[in-house]
Amino acid sequence: MAVFFNQATLTYNDNTTNSNIVTGEIIEVLSATKTAVQDDYSTNDTVTYLINIVNSGTTAISGITVSDDLGAYEFDTQTLTPLTYEENSVKYFVNGVLQATPTVTAGPPLVISGIAVPANAIVTIAYTAEATDFAPPFAEGIVTNTALISGGGITEITVTETIAAESSANLTIT
């Protein structure tokens, strides 16, 4: 939490008086979590993500943007993206009630903008992404997916979810 200090100064007829120093604390009213519906992935699987944004304050906050890196990571001199957003999969709920789809830019990064979070409400954004060939397929492989929640005059919030590669063999006989 951010702490601030305030002191007033009054000057009149060349006399100056300072008030007491007041200390205050800015309490964030917005919090967020990110969850993958399934714990693991394999190449070409779809992964469903849920981002919950909770407004515990008494004022609605609008103009929120969620920017999801789709698990992007650096490899040599390239940025590889192990997830691809599944078109038209974004669902936007306020207190469990489906809303009109906000503006979506597939990316990478995936950008979802025009989100409003009413006072004392929970917004859930659900979407799916497909694991690409850049998702590490070996047993120790993971995809760490990070989203940044910003705009609306809030302090930016970062939420992350990590899923592991499926540990079973994926064999077919023809």
Structure summarized in a few sentences:
This protein is mainly β and 174 residues long.
Description:
The mean pLDDT is 89. This protein has 174 residues and is mainly β. It starts with a strand and ends in a 9-residue tail after the last strand. 21% of the residues are buried. Strands 5, 7, 11, 12, 13 and 16 form a six-stranded antiparallel sheet that branches. The chain contains no helices and 18 strands.
Index terms:
mainly beta; 6-stranded antiparallel beta sheet
Strand residue content:
over 45%
C-alpha termini separation: 60 Å
General form? elongated
Percent helix: under 10%
Strand elements, count: 18
Radius of gyration: 22 Å
- Major sheet attributes: 6 strands, antiparallel
The helix-and-strand class reads mainly beta
Question: Could you list the spans in which at least 5 consecutive residues all have pLDDT below 50?
Answer: none
> What is the arithmetic mean of pLDDT?
89
| SSE order, one letter for each helix or strand | EEEEEEEEEEEEEEEEEE
Number of helical stretches of at least 4 residues:
0
Give the arrangement of secondary structure elements.
Blueprint: E1 2-6, E2 9-12, E3 15-18, E4 22-26, E5 30-36, E6 40-41, E7 46-55, E8 61-68, E9 73-75, E10 78-80, E11 83-85, E12 91-94, E13 97-98, E14 103-105, E15 110-117, E16 121-131, E17 142-151, E18 157-165
Parallel strand pairs: 6-18
Antiparallel strand pairs: 1-4, 2-3, 5-7, 7-16, 8-15, 8-17, 9-10, 11-16, 12-13, 12-16, 14-15, 17-18
